[in-house]
Amino acid sequence: MPLMDFQLILDEIDAELRPRLSAVEGKVASYIPALARVSPARFGIALRTCAGETAQAGDSAVPFSIQSMSKVFSLTLAIRALGEALWERIGREPSGSPFNSLVQLESERGIPRNPFINAGAIAVADRLVSQGDAKAELLALLGRLCGEPIAIDAEVARSEADTGFRNTALANFMKGFGTLDNDVATVLDVYFNQCAIAMSCEQVACAAGYLCRDGRHPLAGTPVLNAAQTRRVNALMLTCGTYDAAGEFAFRIGLPCKSGVGGGIMAVVPDRLTLCVWSPALDRTGNSWLGRQALELFVAKTGLSVF
Ligand code: DON
């Protein structure tokens, strides 16, 4: 395996992309008011290798709202608790539709296409509610993965709940089909709070570390998932992690990725490293505008891709 100076590579990416912040083409998510207040002029990137080497540049230590990146960690908890039974009510196909779309749920009888669209993540939250205190479990998992406490931004959580009309519709629709076991308000409370977790690029790059080492804990080496389960999470990230841009991400980047409307994107280079990039302005598919460019540059500079 060639040795690479990852710090130099991230510094180059930061130097090359930072000037583009003044001419951002995307828009910060505005449908959640607390996110609309975040400055678009932010860019951070961090990575952590399987060997524990780290590199970071820009605003890599600044906490931001992880939003849909949380769906990877809630899925991890649900796979651990339920194994194969999880897939009885959640699909594994890309949706080709926006992350908050309602349309497929009707013809597909309340079974979400995959665990990363909002409907799928709400269904995962329902399974977790049946297992116990889902919010506490998720924060505990993230805290163990990062080796430091992780918290929910209460203002963002409130803002999500105040304006979560589409998510409320999705949850009620699934409840109507009988595919949610628990009370809609309880399930949505878990979902809104998981989206409002605040983490930095450095923390996300570390927390995701089990995804590049066959499921083993990034710091302790103990199993978080087994190798087969980890391959499946990565496969879902590649095919569904960036919603209706998943084909474009596979084409341009070729790494399992998961984005969030806070502007974060985490990516996995299996057997090598995990990285996280953050820049709040989004393209029309809800993925970070500059974040995607950073991942493209990273792959171009390192040749690291699953293809
Ligand atoms: O439920 C929502 O719409 C947001 N809390 C999360 C959506 C999201 O992050 C989609 N990602 N790109």
From TrEMBL:
Catalyzed reactions: L-glutamine + H2O = L-glutamate + NH4(+)
Q: Which GO terms describe its molecular function?
A: glutaminase activity
Per UniProt, which keywords does this protein have? Acetylation, Hydrolase
Residues that coordinate or bind substrate: S68, N118, E160, N167, Y191, Y243, V261
What Pfam family is a match for this entry?
Glutaminase
A GO biological process of this protein is: L-glutamine catabolic process
Protein name listed in UniProt: Glutaminase
Q: Which organism is it from?
A: Pelomonas aquatica
Q: What is the lineage of its organism?
A: Bacteria, Pseudomonadati, Pseudomonadota, Betaproteobacteria, Burkholderiales
Question: Which gene carries the instructions for this protein?
Answer: glsA
